[in-house]
Structures
1.
Amino acid sequence: MAVKTLTIDGKAISAREEQTILQAARENGITIPTLCQLNGTSNIGACRLCLVEVAGVPKLLPACVTLVGEGMQVSTDSEKIHEYRKMIVELLFAERNHVCAACVENGHCELQDLAISVGMDHSRYDYMNPKCAVDITHKRYGIDHNRCVLCGRCVRVCDEIEGAHTWDFQGRGANTRTISDMFVPWGQAVSCTSCGKCVQACPTGAIFRRGSTVAEMQKDRTRLDFIVTAREKKQWIA
Amino acid sequence: MSQRIVIDPVTRIEGHAKISIQLDDQGQVEGARFHVTEFRGFEKFCLGRPFWEMPGITARICGICPISHILGSAKAGDAILAVKVSEQANKLRRLMNLGQYVQSHALSFFHLSAPDFLLGWDSDPASRNVFGLIKANPDLARKGIRLRQFGQEIISLLGGSKIHPAWAVPGGVRGPLTTEGIDWIKDRLPEANETAELALTLFKGMMGKFKAETQIFGNFPSLFMSLVGPDGEWEHHDGGLRFVDAAGNILADHVAAADYQTVIGEAVEPWSYLKFPYFKLMGYPAGGYRVGPLARLNCAEHMQTPRAERELQEFKSLSSGSVNNTFLYHYARLVEIIAALDAIERLVDDPDILSDMVRADAGVNNLRGVGITEAPRGTLFHDYTVNRDGLLEHVNLIVSTGQNNLAMNRTVEQIAKHYVHGEKIEEGMLNRVEAGIRCYDPCLSCSTHAIGQMPMEVSLLAANGSVLDTVARG
């Protein structure tokens, strides 16, 4: 196991060579905001919130999929990065219909927390107000595409942890939609085991327990960690 | 030359409205209308949402009586689930509604209307408000503000926040009261009782002074509607609908929520966003009725506690039939604060309010659900139709203020005809016209789903539309 030494925000740290900048930073108590990243599932670098600056590299790099390197000088905290993060969150809000006040996830939402942490008080971009459906055909759960940020956590957790691969994406760009099976209502998706992992994985109120009322959804992602640890390390610890 | 005076917007009410007064060639009032000028569209944009979210969404209609929408919506949800909520949950819902009665009625009396009574209709409009009241009578103002706080705090103790607590849900409520909460309420009850009695004594003492207002501010025969209990007692949350006429005769009784459309129709006029509900058996507009504190006291035969019963009977003795004077809405409101405080006192001694068996779980078992509750301003209807999954396909909201629409128009006309003469507009005269509206404590943001600010502008228009005179205040 080779070890690399690098600096993050001026702090000298060492990390194993297979670790990402994000993992190394977290091990050393340095916070980098993320949204699509979910412990126990693969990293896809989709949301771009974990962008960091690396000395000598002209573009920003996503910390979740960039491996540490010897002598790397990483900066997670600059005006440029702050501006990008804020812009990304504003774009997420502008892309769908996020109405926190009436949302099942209000007060427990990762997107809402991100907006607060980046200091977003409004979106500088025109709201697209897309017409999005709500699917509560499933007996226990529902999906509201108005609140979906296309992070893909549900897709990965369903595929990689549950092994069902009920969820996937349809379409391109802003028109992308999360779909169940071959674009059938969730209640008719025969591959779905109703395990509820996607509910726990979803960072917003997009996937929720059916019957939830405003601000009532609280998700427990440690359950996913527990399953992955048990499977990979044969250790049944929370 | 005929002229038109416009009061726009009306001040010290919840929401946005204007009043127009039409003068004839001799400068006499020919007619007057109360226009609600904004539109919010909740009935439309809620379509497609799961009905479980409706208490939280419709609560946002209003910041003054969100509790009424939460409760009305939760009751409609109960009907869709086809569950009967537990006794405990219902008591908790009732407690929250009572808290709201205290806070909303205290707001109407002390903050919005007392400046007229205590500082005078013709006093300087710049200080004819709650701040002027604080200056003139700091002790009374403080008591009023604390009475409102008492009601607000009950809501907060139950639901976690004073405004928009998403606490009542289809099937029950999210949680009970705590022993600390009970202690707080018991601790503050004596003070609340004292203030309520003081306000009632004060108002009764002023009745002689307000003989003219009592006779002129919307004094006309009409029907009244409210919920009543099984024995015809005062009710604010459960029970069935009762209609009484001006003479006090019962025209319809114990109408269940699901059957409301057998007795109520809704008419639309092109000059207002507010619909005009009417009693179907008498048609439109003859079947116009009033709701709210005055209607509840006219419909109720008795109260549940001796103190409230004494006040009710004293109130009823003002007339042989129904009390028809709109000005006495203020009086009725104060009687209701007493009744609410008595009911709160009884509930906080009931062990059921600490029970955690407060939420029934069920799927969609009815495609339609109607919830009725008595908001402080009057009867509120939430009527939902959902698909098999529970997504809303049709929403009909009939809100308290809407049902007072015909009466408010009539009140405005009556006051205008009495006080408004000639081409020059006096500010105090306009204040009386507005005060007629304030009697109803209308909530226009509720009734039309409107938002607005409340500066006021009055225009005097000639028959050809040219402006003869304008009075504005910010």
2.
Amino acid sequence: MALQETRLIFKHIDEEGYTNDIDCYVKNGGYEQLKKAVTMKPEDICAEVLTSGVRGRGGAGFPAGMKWKFLDRKSGKPIYLVCNADESEPGTFKDRQIIHQDPHQLIEGMMCAAFAIQAKLAFIYIRGEFFQGYKILERAIEEAREKNFLGDNILGSGYSCDIIVHRGAGAYICGEETGLIESLEGFRANPRIKPPYFPAALGAYQCPTIVNNVETLCDVKHIIEMGGEGFAKIGTPGNTGTRIWCVSGHVQKPGYYEFACGDVTLGQLINDVCGGLKPGRKLKAVIPGGSSAKILRADERFTGKLKDGTEFDWGIEDIPMDFDSLAAVGSMSGSGGVIVMDDTTDMVEALANINYFYAHESCGQCTPCREGVPWMRKVTQRMVDGEAREEDADLLKSIADQIAGRTICAFGEAASWPVQSFIAKFKDEFVEKAKEQAARRKEGEEVAKETTLI
Amino acid sequence: MNIQSIVENITINIDGQDVEVPKGINIIEAVKMVGKGKEVPHYCYHPKLSVAGNCRMCMVEMGMPMRDRATGEAILDENGVQKIGWMPKPTIGCATNASPGMHIRTNSEMVKESRNGVTEFLLINHPLDCPICDQAGECRLQEFSAEHGRGYSRFIEKKNVKPKRTTLGPRVTLDDERCILCSRCIRFSKEVAGDDVLGFVDRGTYSTLTCFPGKDLSHNYSLNTVDICPVGALTSTDFRFKMRVWFLKRTDSICTESSVGANTEIWSREGKIYRITPRRNDAVNDTWMTDSGRALYKAIESDDRLVQYTIEGVHKSPEEVANAAVELLQLGDVALVGSAHSSLEEQFFYKTIAERCGAKVSLVSHYGEGDGLLLSEDRSPNLRGALVTGLIDQLPEAKLDALAHDINSGAVKTVLAVNEDLTQLGIDSETLAKVKVIYVGTHANKTSQVAHLVIPSLMVFEKDGSFINQSFRLQRFKTAVPGPRGVKSDITILEKIAAPLAQEKAAPALAIDELWLRMVKTLASLPESLSWRSLPDEGVVLDAKAFLDLSFVETKNLKYDPVAFKEAHTASAQAPAAAAQEEA
């Protein structure tokens, strides 16, 4: 396997001399695909996207072409396209780079997608903290409108569509697609119950709506360029295209790296691409897809069968980085946020940190998440503060089990998977923590060092 | 009602038993229809509000018959029965609509475990102050915790702290710590009351119910939020800390505030009323009532309550006063001012009395502004009753000018006034002095003060009877509390007056059922088979065909549309019951 990055979406990111204005973009072949797209039949584009097999880059990995197919076109209501730029999964930082450095790629991708689904209006729901990105997008849209890449009668095709940039106000739950739609409509971002409110039928303003991630929409542009089949050649069957891995944590060179799906293993990504761990450290655990993905323990053996029936027996470093392999080992590729932890990591503190985040971000609409997640936070906080009990590990697992699968949206899973997997794989550390604190208390020593969770 | 009669029935399977339910009904309602005490526990779902699906208590397991995706053919098991594809996760019953062949498990291990989890979560930050909480005894959280909870707490952390006594409006006080954030009150204010004032602020476990800035929960339906609050968060400022609900006796009654005739429940103990709440009747008031209607019982203990039978201000026995009334009425030249606040039974008597002494009958209108919901323009509960009993045949006027003229001309010498202050209705005290007044009423006023005879009357809470509401629905109310000491029921005293007028012997203690035997014989609109005791709780719709030409003042409100009502009753005069369903 080559360790050469396959830069598709990040082709011009960090390129010397590449600027985010439209002239630079057009000079590098920009908006050619949109020109091509508006001459195609919308349903053909949809078919290409379906053929390409491109899967959602936001976390769930649902095939985008399939999502488009579910669109309710018979209702007669206007169709909306929403770009989910509320990148807030801890450990993920890819969409921001696209918006900051190559906004026109997103706009072109969006307009191609909007034309394909015949959207009446498109929105970019951008995370509130991305103020710079918001300004860049506003300017880019203005530039594109001047050149008639969006707006009325785009490139003389008779198709009109505009993009409205909507800023969030700083809540993780706004990244959940129905929560995002509620927020877009001006309400609290309380996710909607499904059924009946599937966005493809009853989305924004109760109209059929498609919500796609920034990276997914950029892929649409490349699908038009290469054709669905061409795009499907990148990566492995069922895991097409490239993925941007955002590596953070205890590696020498954290950052974003774009590879074709399955082109690189987790071990290669950490050791070769990111320069390995700090000297003298040993790998302890990896969260491969943003903080809500289940953690993988470094000394685990992963065995089982892939979707296509091939058996595998991998160590952590052998896991190919793609949707299906990561799912097969019991985690997920999620949003591509790879969080690496070496042996200096205190797993209780790490979990306390994650719990702190999710407890803070729970929207509070439905009971299990609203009450259960802050409870888990209180338990891990107490453990870190020196009051750990040996039974806390089981308690945490039990709380998480009562949340997952019982909530309105996937936040319940997002918050309980880390707890479930931390306890499943590092239970000994949680029990050890309690014993250690009890021993110190007996000796009259200070039980816990001061920890600040952020 | 209407919907059920049109929509087709389908078969679904609940806990292994095939049942027929209307298509599209949700699982909570479907399970309720199965009966046998089966229930899907729920907090946020309310049959009259939109579905929020946030409490997660009504989790059930759902499965559909399996079909081959490619061919669409049923997949059978080894016994030739179609296999059921059970969903891996539980689904909420409130947002799951019954579809043909659907299988539901309401009591599987997974369902029990998830209810148990939800219960535990709801309790960890709940103050558990049931011993001092007004809701105790009628609290869903308390009931379901006993039924579905684990019975002990695993929570050793600190509970969240929230405001304990927020005044949301003039009648509602909120304890935020008890709130389980089900959003019923928010949805009610928005969807039913039409006054969007409530909302949540803050996020997650700190979410707090509050009014929007600069607004308060002051609409005339605010106390319904207290009724539908499944826990003790929203409390009635009036009822707060007054009484434990399990001590209270519940009596079915009818609201007398307007011609809507909202069905109510009177909550009393030892002869004292503590509160009035709405009783569900989908054809009349759903599950709501006005705040103003709930306060009407306070007039029972008012200082100006009439409690003594008097002749010229001197306290006499009921019999003496009745006899004196008979003597006066027998002299002739009588005018009767009836009341649309009287029960149907009383109006029947007044009609009889008027016939027997040749009195001219007038009735006064009490109209106000309607709110389009449960407060109609006609502020009397029984105007239709006066029409049905034949007491009047025209709609009442606002003033008694004709009567004033008759008094001044000497045509009228005696006035029998029921619950009306004649001095407010165009008869000045000078005119009134020219006649002898027999006053029957609950409270003192300027007319009762100058009356020759005063006969105290009982309020609706203190007697049995019936009213006919705006859509000619005959509804029954029952005695909740005893009347003032010594005051006899109206029908007892009226019998003592009416019988001698026809040289009959008065029945010593007239029972309401006995009276009804007479009424169904006499009154054309009442079916002969009807008796007071057998009146169903939801009432009976009478044939209104004879009265359709009258222009009633009620405009469209929650369950009444004058145009639709007229059409329905004209079209199907033969089947009044069916007409009622149409109109409902």
